[in-house]
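Example 301, ligand glutamic acid.
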Amino acid sequence: MPSTAPYCGRFAPSPTGALHFGSLIAAVACYLDARTNRGRWLVRMEDIDPPREVPGAADDILHTLEAFGFEWDDAVLYQSRRTAAYQAALEQLQQQGHTYPCGCSRKGIAQQGRPGVEGIIYPGTCRAGLPPEREARTTRLVTPNPPVGFMDKIQGKIEQSIAQEVGDFIIRRSDGLFAYQLAVVVDDAWQGVTHIVRGADLMHSTPRQLYLQRLLSHPAPGYAHLPLAVDAAGNKLSKQTGSLPIDRKTPLPALLAALRFLHQPLPDEQPASLQEFWQWAVANWDIKRAPRQQIQPMPLR
Ligand code: GLU
């Protein structure tokens, strides 16, 4: 039975390339989960990292979503227009004493830090104050030792000691840009997002986001992390590697492949229209069927 609690989901692509099969899976899953729960569904363009962005990709992604029959509530939120909100959150964290300026270079950290779940763990060099003659480059968050945990709807119980497995992480980068971890937490709260369904590549980020939510007094949404599609060689599909953009002219085969990938039942006959596909998919969606493994080969079409 769909729950009657208010539900707001979102799809939050970064405009680093065209939508590919991997991101389509996330879009399909979060859309169906929202609609099955009679929830709202938002699209947020995470365009806060210009060096990694591809001109025209944001519009291209939106056109593809439209051509695939996705319908979002409210206007698309662009993170590039939310700098003042990220600045306010940064100042709040600074005033509460949770941050510190860091003068370390990437190279220095690579030499001193040990590997963690996501790159090198920052060894804490500037935690007690900037060493003499070092200038601040980034702003870091002081992280807690006790594990931060959550119950993932697909993956089960997840726990992480952020201090030991990730380290004090950057919330403002050396180029002055705000980090994804901060922006995503500020916007999920501001948009009233209650349920986050996304790829398992972001699962290691969730404890950091839960911790930031706690510090900023934001409610914690529910999380579900989907398996990631990999190619035959086991490589993650990503926009950066130019993996398989999907064809706007033939959405149905890709949509059906996404359902198959997520272990959802398939209609006996190919739906006659996108509208028929979505009606069927909403009526038959069950997130609990999504496979628990964190990577899964892409289905052959
Ligand atoms: N913008 C992120 C990406 O495209 C996703 C963020 C999220 O879902 O939290 O990988």
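Summary: The two ends are 32 Å apart (CA to CA).
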